[in-house]
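input
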Amino acid sequence: MTSQLRFPTLTASLLAITLASAASAQTETMPIAGAATSTELTGTVTIVNQEKRMLTIETSDGRFEVLHVPPAVKRLDEIKIGNRLTITETEALLVDLKKGSGAGTIGMSQNITAERDPGTKPSGAIVDTATISGRVESVDKAGSTVTIQGPNRAVTLKVEDPALLDSLAVGDGVEASYMRVISGKVEFQ
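output
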């Protein structure tokens, strides 16, 4: 299977989000690619269904959006019809190259946390982080591809910037960290 993987320049906003795990003294970690996007949804609460953990908001352009509220959100009962709700979703990806004796470990981990902001208004964030570790199986500089063995299968990726392949060697570790942050705040009316 061949997939297209783009390696854009690290953005300042991505650097502000700490995704990479701490490297051991025997392993050198080098960020090689990253990207981040953020979207915002704001509207007035029109329906609160606490049993089904759902909110409906009306946006300024008249659209109705139904939001499923995860159990990690503890103050759903404080949100009322007429409140103004702003939800921001940020997705970030960081790809690291690992060299040294601790490199090339294959695995996957996931962590979900909820952080409540202090104050009288319901607000906070849910952070979902997944990290997949793989090992470089082959590098094809002429074809501008790299094959990586992951936890479930090997995948061949097309590399947009062939110069990145100069730093790769068979046996190197590759770690892709994906973070999704959903934050929200309520303004009482």
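quick obs: The chain is about 5% helix and 60% strand.
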